[in-house]
């Protein structure tokens, strides 16, 4: 993509109304736009990062045998009343509205009740089970505090998966596989070293009902205590624990509901012996936009964002520095693109200093400079955003390396 076609502009100054590092950097670099407190639009660069994260998550969920679907945002009050969760006392983040007819509707903050209800028309016998489904859905939550940028949005993108199993054994087999898949996701997006499986009451193997995935991060609202550094296991700070407290952000959550919700919602199946049996439910969330915020928090430096390769909006940021070198830069752009390398080409009529500062701010892993030096020697200056290491390479070698 040519940067001249990107309508988004970088900003030198931090937006006056933002306090969190992720919102400041992502706004300055043109990845997000604040609409109102806790509500952000994704601009082209931000959308590309979100799409990369989604792709990694999709692959892992599909490998588990889950199929993608998409539920509605407007939700039926009666369905939530069946489990008592329509109540604002029980669920303190509801956004609700009223139809012209006078009946109330809710905005989806979660989909456990609607998906369980939906399954009553698809699951009838043991032949129909197990079922695994997931979606990428914008959740709406009336969060009290919304000062953490996209770490805590009032509208945010979540991946939610649901498992419907015949019994606890079948459920736990999937739950354990899902735990591994989640760790794969966090490793693939570049957070493997600092992400822990946590539980409230102890080690992973003693508490099988619910686990969180917590990424170490100064901006985190949670406190965890690491119990096994190699096994990436920790406990969260709800109870006094031994060891050093660490700030962390919950990037994912997996939860066993057992059969209770299905009993409340009327989701039963006929087992092999013809007995009417309630379905065993599990729920598995990952905060997709929150993950983008965590990556900005964890890797961002004093110059701007620093994206891990796997989720970077582009692999290469190509900078054309002068009018004279434009032809050579155009050629490099075309050849890189033809080789399948994702390139953002700064073809703008701007000063070199501005282009360098913008490249640092946007944080694409590899910066390639085409200027007077390249004209004279045919060598391109190639710099790593993460390490700052600079090398000189002919275009052909660069393409071989990246393609
Ligand atoms: P938290 O304790 O941070 O409020 P939660 O327990 O409410 O999270 P879940 O309902 O389990 O979260 O949602 C699944 C995932 O969605 C969370 O693990 C988190 O990554 C993400 N998430 C939850 N709330 C928000 C939010 N307001 N903004 C962005 N992401 C969120
Ligand atoms: Mg919450």
UniProtKB/TrEMBL annotation:
Domain of life assignment: Bacteria
Q: Which Pfam families match?
A: HGTP_anticodon, tRNA-synt_2b
Catalytic reactions of this protein: tRNA(Pro) + L-proline + ATP = L-prolyl-tRNA(Pro) + AMP + diphosphate
GO MF terms here are: ATP binding; proline-tRNA ligase activity
Q: Which GO terms describe its cellular component?
A: cytosol
| InterPro entries membership | aa-tRNA-synt_IIb, aa-tRNA-synth_II, aa-tRNA-synth_II/BPL/LPL, Anticodon-bd, Anticodon-bd_dom_sf, Pro-tRNA-ligase_IIa, Pro-tRNA_synthetase, ProRS_anticodon_short
Protein name per the record: Proline--tRNA ligase
| Protein's organism | Candidatus Zambryskibacteria bacterium RIFCSPHIGHO2_02_FULL_43_37
